[in-house]
Amino acid sequence: MAYYRPPGPPPDPVLVKSLTQQQHDMRQRVRHEPLAHEPRLIAGCDSSFPTPDTILSVFVVLKFPSLELVEKVYNYGPVDMPYMPGFLSFREAPNVIHTFAKLQNKPDIIMVDGHGIAHPRRMGIAAHLGVLLDMPTFGVAKQKLTGAFEEPGITRGSITELLDTKSGEVIGEVIRSKDKVLPLFVSPGHRCDQATATRLTLACLRGYKLPEPTRLADHWAEEFKKEVR
DNA sequence: GCGACAG
DNA sequence: ATCTTGTCGC
């Protein structure tokens, strides 16, 4: 009997070591603090893949707290880096940065589809982008990457903490954004704290599992994808 | 050695 | 992420 083996070529240990070092370095630049002022504009960021080697990223900007859509932009290009758990940002961040540059309306904070510091080295894509853009960011993920948590109540608004299994430190919060649907994993990225990330996530809920910034970015990523291929 | 593993 | 049909529950 053959044992189970994950698909795809094995990761290059030399590359993994380099990327890991880069994350440790970037981690030193991450800051957690409350926002200087209440946001007027909040952005949503997400990426999709029209083809296996093409990435298309989207940024939507909404007024806050009305959540009225004021702008949406996208950019796409080739992707070289393969997907590796824990190193997602090296695959997606380059194109996301180019997309951000196209925005006419710069947001006060960015909600990213993915994790903030709820990452093995506290450098999820939200934190990674925050450092590169020097912008307040936080992550809203649909699946856990690392950590342990207690299942939050089944009603909308229930929250529990996501803890690092090793140190016990709080690395995020698990939020039930809608009655009886799988919870979201919210964590601060850069220039943002947990309280702010959680508060804004809840303030952006409109009856769907995903908060508006991320939900709309996801929606437009699908629409733009049709135009491109 | 055995699981877990964002998008 | 992406490929995909029908199906269960509110």
Describe the structure in your own words.
- The chain is α+β, with helices and mostly antiparallel strands and 229 residues long.
- It has one domain: archaeoglobus fulgidus dsm 4304 fold, CATH 3.30.2170.
- The protein is 28% helix and 27% strand.
- The chain contains five helices and nine strands; from the N terminus they run H-E-E-E-H-E-H-E-E-E-E-E-H-H.
- It has helices at residues 13-27, 88-101, 125-133, 194-203, 212-228; strands at 41-51, 54-63, 69-78, 109-113, 137-141, 148-149, 159-163, 170-175, 184-190.
- It has a nine-stranded mixed β-sheet, sandwiched between helices.
- Strand 8 (170-175) and strand 9 form a beta hairpin.
- Helix 2 packs across helix 3 (125-133).
- The mean pLDDT is 95.
- The protein binds two DNA strands through residues 6, 46-49, 52, 55, 83-86, 88, 91-92, 113-115, 118-120, 124-125, 139, 141-146, 179-180, 185.
Characteristics:
alpha+beta; single chain; 229 residues; archaeoglobus fulgidus dsm 4304 fold; 9 strands; 5 helices; DNA-binding; 9-stranded mixed β-sheet
